[in-house]
# Entry
Amino acid sequence: MSENETLTEETQKASASKKRKKQQLIDMALIAMMAALIAVCSWISIPVGEIPITLQTFAVFVAVGLLGMKRGLLSVVVYILLGAVGVPVFAGFTGGISVLFGTTGGYIVGFLFLALIAGLILDKFGKKVYVMIIALVLGLFVCYAFGTAWFMVIYMKNTGPVGLMTVLGWCVFPYIIPDLVKMALAIAITKAVSLRIKI
# Structure
């Protein structure tokens, strides 16, 4: 290998390394930005039943839609970890591990499953509107299921027996239509942003 070829190879390696570092910085910034968006959206809440209606799910939908599974999931992880250590990023400006281990904490943890399932589907099949609808609905269903099971376990441990339909009436049924509206808005925003900016 000639000296010129060696220099060219080293230059290419340096350039590739620089691009990787730049992309890593961009990814970190996007993850932090989406975690902050989830936090801000959690503060916008309307008290309804056991769980306030917030824009958290909207923010998770947007994070996964724009960033894909890995970075979208990391955004949710960062958000939950911030709340777990006491930063008031949960609904009602609350924070702390006690919120996660409370009756409604399962729905927050369920955002991880929402991001994982929806993100995997979107990464595999692309971001056509019908794919996004299927991905987000399936992810939301698992989030509901996990959160409801968590609620029942904690509630029965602390208060007493409660029926599944009762819990669904408290924690799921009132939120289905608002979550579908948030989903439609998130899909529209994701498609609009994706057409203009490559993230």
The chain has a mean pLDDT of 92. The chain is about 80% helix and 0% strand.
